[in-house]
Design a protein that fits this description.
4 helices, 229 residues, alpha+beta, six-stranded antiparallel beta sheet
């Protein structure tokens, strides 16, 4: 369960709630970016989410319900590796878009991970393996939670985040032109979770190239990292 938002008004602001249960995470901040890493039993620490100094942001919500069309089959690109390559600046958003629009993209067996990606210009790319790609050129705002935007609520699941989607969408639709970091944290607080807990809430002020985050819904204990412009 996760919530990804992008707002393009006076500033480009990206927000991300990481909601996970039973996985070890850590935050690594450097001049290259601020990454949320997950400790994988096979691969070790993997940088799966976060912002880089170039201005890209990577979120990877899980799609509920699972769609078997995202299972690996034949040739193609793993969504996890596509996301990591963007986060580590091995590809640009436009190169990732071209791959996703012209070649098969799959997830891992039994789980449909999605890509919620954006760049310094506020462009947004949503990749739903096995279902399709949505690209928005600097939209006013964009939201992705844990259901497929190609299915909306035609299939339901307790963790799909339909309520979180509408909460975030409603706030962003009515937001003022001076929507800023504190406003983004307010959206993340309104969409945070306890059952599958929100372990990291991250806001990226792309215009200023500064990343802010807090852990475990500690809204009064916010850290920050200014990235080189």
């Amino acid at each position: 369960m996760c919530t990804s938002i992008v707002s393009n008004r006076g500033k480009t602001i990206v927000g991300w709630n990481l909601d996970i249960l039973g996985l070890e995470h850590r935050i690594t901040a450097s001049e290259a970016g601020v990454y949320i890493e997950i400790n994988d039993s096979t691969e070790g620490w993997l940088p799966l989410f976060g912002a880089n100094a170039r201005g890209d942001f990577v979120g990877m919500p899980t799609c509920h319900p699972f769609d078997e069309r995202s299972n690996p089959r034949g040739e193609g690109h793993n969504i996890i590796m596509l996301d990591i390559d963007l986060l580590l600046q091995k590809r640009t958003l436009q190169e990732t878009k071209e791959i996703a629009e012209t070649q098969p993209v799959y997830s891992v067996s039994g789980a449909t991970f999605m890509g919620a990606l954006s760049d310094r210009n506020g462009n947004v790319l949503h990749i739903i393996p096995g279902q399709g790609v949505r690209y928005f050129e600097k939209p006013g705002y964009a939201v992705l939670t844990n259901f497929s935007p190609f299915k909306m609520d035609s299939e339901t699941h307790p963790w799909m985040g339909w309520d979180r989607y509408h909460t975030a969408e409603g706030i962003l639709r009515e937001a003022a032109e001076d929507f800023d970091v504190s406003d983004c944290f307010a959206v993340l607080k309104a969409t945070s979770q306890e059952v599958c807990p929100t372990v990291v809430s991250m806001v990226f002020d792309v215009t200023e190239n500064v990343v802010y985050w807090c852990e475990n819904r500690q809204w009064d204990s916010i850290c920050s990292k200014a990235l080189p412009k």
